[in-house]
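Submission checklist for the structure archive. All mandatory fields must be present; incomplete records are returned to the submitter.

[x] Identifier: Nuclear receptor subfamily 0 group B member 1
[x] Organism: Phascolarctos cinereus
[x] Residue count: 289
[x] Sequence attached
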Amino acid sequence: MACLDRCRCCADNRRQSSILYSILKSEEQKSETQEQEQEQQQHQHQHQQQQPLERAQRQGQGQGCSCGSQRRVALKSPQVACKAASAVLVKTLRFVKNVPCFQELPLDEQLVLVRSCWAPLLVLGLAQDRVHFETVETSEPSMLQRILTTRRRDPDDLELSSSPPALPEPLALTDPLQPPSAAQVQAIKGFLTKCWSLDISTKEYAYLKGTVLFNPDLPGLHCVQYIQGLQREAQQALNEHIRMLHRGHQARFAKLNVALSLLRSINANVIAELFFRPIIVLENRAGSR
């Protein structure tokens, strides 16, 4: 380039019209044109490649993915799993009924607590009894199935008598049939796996159930301070029990509380649909014969 610059400086005006200069200039312009065309082609090619990706991303953001974790699932062996869940439910209600502090509460307070905590208590019972279940993908129900599997709500069913606390209204399953998603079921299985990995003892399960049962944050409660004290006592008893039996008890206490946080994220309607909808469907079919 330096030599070429010196030549240009020393050359007269006719130099620019020389054949060599014309050839060099023509080649330079041609090279520049080719480079510009290549850059334009590369830019167009990249733009064409990005368009489907951007379109897919916009569709994914706007509509969500209908596959994977959003697919609907049902129990693979409903007779076995539902029977096991029903047995755990009976044990759970018996546990609640036999808690002395619970019996001392007014009946309307008992009702509020049971209606709120039956599902997490049931899942804790599934973990304690090591109940395993498998699911399979299922199709969306038709409108006829929604109608046939919907029951009317009876206000009289909400009353608590002196017998063991009746199941709260969510188990009546009055809402249209909506099978749980794979992600919702995976949340349940994730909690069960977490409990099994911690090898929770019988006493620890009892204290965890007490923490879940006596929830002072529920709307409709009147004995809030009393229930809050019961929950605090359950947590203190759990902490004391862990301190006596486990080294690094604070770490274990924290892990158990993490498990409780996972439990709170599980929807009660998902539990009802998964384990008790099949029973109601079978009853409806038997009654229609």
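[x] Structure attached
Curator remark: The chain has a mean pLDDT of 74. Residues 137 and 162 are 42 Å apart (CA to CA).
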